[in-house]
Amino acid sequence: MNEKTLQKVGGVCAFLEGLIYIVAFIIYGAILVYPDANASVNERLDFLTENHLIFSLLTFTSYILFGILLVVLVVAIYHRLKSYSLILSQLISAFGIIWAGLVIASGMIDNISLNTVIEMGSKDPENAMLVFSATNIITEGLGGGNEIVGGIWVLLLSLTALKGHLFSKLLNLLGILVGLAGILTIYPLEIFTEIFGISQIVWFLWIGVIMLRSH
Questions:
Q1: How far apart are CA 168 and CA 174, in angstroms?
Q2: Pick from 148, 114, 152: which is nearest to 133 by CA?
Q3: Percent of the chain, pLDDT > 90?
Q4: Which terminus of the chain is less hemmed in, N or C, by CB atoms within 10 Å?
């Protein structure tokens, strides 16, 4: 694969990342409404069982496929940044690959967890939901609600691109905002996660367009 093709493929991956975010926001936020805190254990289990296929597909798309596409994008961006600073580009890529690995791991754990919970649910509903809660904490910590590594990747990438005049100035400033929001998800405030997710949709789509138009 030559450099021009890699940039085009990276642009497609970035665009798809943004679309995955949009679909996830719509389905998780507006279509699949998880039972509230007053719901019984059986009601929550019934909800998971009824929507098992949808949850599995969403997890695969939002985590595993997202992570795979991210690896390609990280490599494509590395080849753009290395002309400015080889050492910085390697450091930035390391954070990007680590983030992709965490996201993929989150998705695999989440899917196995859901299958296990549903199998256990018919025999031991209480323990099934305890397993669900425990594994949910793990997946959220790895890549669902904790975006520190992704934030560092976007922040370093954007600062380097800003200094090297590699992308548009506005895109790089947006990337700095995205990166800072991701790092701030270390605090247990939902607002930082929401800012990171929404602003990164724009960032992914924007960088995708630029990469598709390059060369």
A1: 10
A2: 114
A3: 53
A4: N
- Both tokens of 207, joined, read 């960088």
Residue 3 φ then ψ, to 5°: -60, -40
- Spatial neighbors of 68 by CB under 8 A, at least 6 apart, are 100, 104
> What's the confidence (pLDDT) of residue 44?
86
3-state secondary structure of 58: helix
Is residue 150 within 8 A of residue 98, CB to CB? The reply is no
The whole-model pTM stands at 0.91
CA 46 to chain CA mean position, Å: 27
Phi and psi for 111 in degrees, rounded to 5?
-65, -45
- What does the block give as tokens for 192? 């930082």
DSSP character string of 177-197: HHHHHHHGGGSS-HHHHHHHH
What does the block give as tokens for 198? 């929404």
Task: Please state, in angstroms and rounded to a whole number, the distance separating the CA atoms of residues 93 and 104.
Answer: 16
Domain coordinates in residue numbering, the chain: 3-144+201-213
